[in-house]
Amino acid sequence: MTRFRKTSPFQTYTRDYIHFVTILVFLVSFNAQTVSAQGAGGYVYKQFQNPVRDRLIHGLFSSNFTWGVATSAYQIEGAWNEDQRGETIWDTFSHEPGRIVDNANGDIACNSYHKIDEDVALLKELQVKHYRFSIAWSRILPDGTLNKINQAGIVYYRRLINALVEAEIEPVVTLFHWDLPQALQDIGGWSNEILTVYFKNYAELCFLEYGDWVKRWITFNEPSIFAKAGHEHGVHAPGLKHQGTTVYRVAHTIIKAHAKVWHTYDNKYRASQKGQVGITLVSSWAQPSTKWQVDIMAAERYLQFEFGWFAHPLMVNGDYPSVMKTQILEKSIGQGLSSSRLPSFTEEEKVLLRGTVDFLGVNYYTTKLISAWRSDAWPPGYEEDQDLKAWHDESWPKSGASWQKCVPWGFRLLLNWVKHEYGNPPIYVTETGVAEKLNDQDEPKLKDVWRVQYFVSHINELLKAYKLDGVNVQGFSAWTLMDNFEWQDGYSTRFGLYHVDFKSPARTRTAKSSAKKYNEIVTGNGFPVPVSKLRYIPQFKPDMAFGAAPRAPMVPVFHDNDEGIQPEFR
């Protein structure tokens, strides 16, 4: 239940935040089993050496935990005008001079359209259990509708899925990873609610063609980023800067489109195909900059605007978080409007929306410090609606991207917030990774120690969330398999486990150190206790007094704590 009250020195609205405060303090309430692993004393980053919070632990994930890597169609496929593929908003956007660093585009990218066998070989080398990739809507439906089904596109994804199945790698499919067919943008894009119908038709075609092999479907990847970057800030396709308006209409349509697809699968395909339909959401962790209540509530407000924007309608009550509705209505009235810039759902729509997530994909890349701040009434904007400031601590470990600092403990806190906010749903971490900046010579950085540190520290925080906090996490996907087209950064920013030589027509792939480390984590299913640390205590039969019958041998179970590996006999 949500409640509000006004708080001075400026007006803001608060909600019941007991669970949020609980998450903030839980890090000091447990006695973790810690070990030395990466770096001195079991720490990864010199900036983070809190003995309770930051030390690495040993432990394994469940036997059915699934490890994988993630990519997206526009970022790797290339072949932008081959085999009757239709144009996308990213083709249009990237072909406009000045939109992308170095005027780069995804016309060829990693050329994965022609390298199925090579890419699957990389997956086999990593020994992952699943591969998360996206289908390019316009490759199978060139204009986004059923007017024409492109068989060449259908066959391409069938070949990819068959190659994965033959390699015993599960295909995990994202239906929309930002590359909307340009023909649909020409009729208004996601601002036009007719797209809920077109998206349902496209998804149903995918279910029919691939549903016998694909058992996990993700409708949308990071819809908040797509809505904001493409329709509020104009730095992503389609490049619109409609402050405080279109961003909410786009999200509104996407939410309804997700639910329509979920119901279609549930009513027509679930019984025979036995799969699941989820959605992938992203947020930074919001760390209050002080212990003041106004900053704690500002951090909660940030999370509700970023994550709850989509999760609350689909997983709670079919409607937006109360704090969003209140904030945006108040701002809208202050701007002279008679109603909120945030669209509303009908009661019938609320019923259809809630409970339409079989699993939740969570993406995490960084943490931000948050403080309350009363923004001006004009101009309107998504960020302005939140009444807060968000920034990075400059002392935190850097990455190759200005928007990313490496903050492992924020990952764990975000997962715990999701657990408490949404009743501990099944979670798959569908992306996390770290950027590197291309140097002037375009030299491959194969010894990517910073990425090794990132994955060791963040996956270890995931282990803590799973083992110590009871977060229902069921899988992990590293972003990303290989260097690729990174949206407005083009090829100047790299996230790959494998280096791609974009100067070579062959687009040669070469493993980095992080690929080898990730393979080690995957094959170990986490962070097993090194054999060298186990002190073997032999089985024995103790002498039994008073003529008692001999008992079965006692088997030592080893536990790791600050005093070393300690046995417990059972």
UniProtKB/TrEMBL annotation:
The record's section on SUPFAM superfamilies has: (Trans)glycosidases
**Does the UniProt entry include the keyword Zinc?**
no
What are the alphabetically sorted keywords of the record?
A: Glycosidase, Hydrolase
Q: Does the keyword Hydrolase apply?
A: yes
The entry's family comment says: Belongs to the glycosyl hydrolase 1 family.
What protein name is recorded for this chain?
Lactase-phlorizin hydrolase-like
Which species is listed as the source?
Saccoglossus kowalevskii (Acorn worm)
The UniProt gene name for this protein comes to: LOC102800852
